[in-house]
Design brief:
By secondary structure, this protein is of the alpha+beta class. The chain has 3 domains: 12-70 and 209-242, Pseudouridine synthase (2-Layer Sandwich); 73-205, Pseudouridine synthase (2-Layer Sandwich); 247-303, PUA domain (Archaeosine Trna-guanine Transglycosylase, Chain: A, domain 4, Roll). The protein has helices at residues 24-35, 105-113, 136-141, 180-191, 218-228, 254-261, and strands at 12-18, 40-42, 51-58, 73-81, 83-85, 94-97, 117-121, 130-131, 134-135, 151-163, 167-174, 195-205, 208-209, 249-251, 266-267, 276-280, 286-292, 297-303. The longest helix has 12 residues, at 24-35. The radius of gyration is 23 Å and the shape is globular.
């Protein structure tokens, strides 16, 4: 029996611009097939009703997803005042409409000031959190509501970009775990008329920003492949360590490379004394992640094969 072909062994990250209407997994599978990649995963899910930055990891890069769990996110979101739905966006059913009071930029800025910094946020029922083994959104679809504990969230930036009589657009930079639909609902309640998300787009995740790095839509990737063949797609792949810029970098001397690669701790001058850090060979080849032990030696924590 012939062995099933697995696809190309490629490693690295593509900054994909996910369109509306696709789940993160559907988007991942389309990108994987386009690149004919043997192995792929994504970091940081986006709902079908949200668009924007979805980093797709190939090969060994799939091993870094856990290191990005704590990454900050940046969104551009538009809310509509005076409308409330059961999901916090236009995908749900309208449960109430209210009169919208007159609001100017100064009044809106005063409201937004309440939400900047650390706040307590109650997760919505339409979320992937679990209650007694079941996703909250599954319970919500059955018309059930359960108590949820508030969680601390850091909103590092909430910038007002546009304001009309019934709509407003924000740029939001938050810590992990923030629910932007809940933020918009809470802002609407603070104004006194409620609000709902009508457009949500992620424009930043961890070290990546759509303002600073090129991102690719499906049609962009298809055009590249059509013009130059499948191998031409490899030019848009970022190296694995591009995801890890928040971690300090340590360059090993030549005598330390082989021991580290074989899993043995070594003494490394000037290595950070706390937390994980990136390890490089003298030729700047990325080796993986390391951490200092109690005895002062640097131990490998997550290594990558030579690429």
């Amino acid at each position: 029996m012939a062995r099933k072909r697995r696809g190309r062994e490629i490693n690295g990250i593509v900054l994909f611009d996910k369109p509306l209407g696709l789940s993160s997994n559907q988007a991942l599978q389309r990108v994987r097939r386009l690149f004919d990649a043997a192995k792929a995963g994504h970091t940081g899910s986006l709902d079908p009703a949200a668009s924007g930055l979805l980093p797709v990891c190939f090969g060994q890069a799939t091993r870094i997803s856990g290191l990005l769990l704590d990454a900050d996110k940046t969104y551009r979101v538009t809310g509509r005042l005076g409308t409330l739905t059961d999901s916090g966006d236009l995908e749900g059913e309208v449960i109430e409409t209210r009169e919208v009071p007159p609001i100017d930029t100064g009044a809106m800025e005063a409201v937004l000031a309440r939400f900047r910094g650390r706040v307590e946020q109650v997760p919505p029922m339409h979320s992937a959190l679990k209650h007694e083994g079941r996703r909250l959104y599954e319970l919500a679809r059955e018309g059930k509501t359960v108590e949820r504990k508030a969680r601390p969230i850091d909103f590092h930036e909430i910038t007002l970009e546009a304001l009309s009589a019934t709509e407003f657009t924000l740029r939001v930079h938050s810590s992990k775990g923030a629910y932007i639909r809940t933020l918009i609902e809470d802002i609407g309640e603070a104004i006194g008329c409620g609000a709902v998300v009508i457009e949500l787009r992620r424009i930043g995740l961890g070290p990546w920003s759509m303002d600073e790095q090129p991102t690719y839509r499906l049609e962009d990737l298809e055009a590249i492949a059509a013009e130059g063949g499948i191998d031409s797609l490899d030019h848009v792949i970022l190296p694995i360590d591009s995801a890890l810029g928040a971690y300090p970098a340590v360059v090993l001397d030549a005598s330390s490379v082989d021991p580290i690669r074989h899993g043995h701790p070594v003494f490394v001058p000037n290595a950070p004394q706390t937390g994980w850090f990136r390890l490089y060979a003298p030729d700047n080849l990325f080796l993986g992640m390391g951490e200092v032990l109690d005895d002062g030696r640097t131990a490998p924590r997550r290594l990558f094969a030579a690429l």
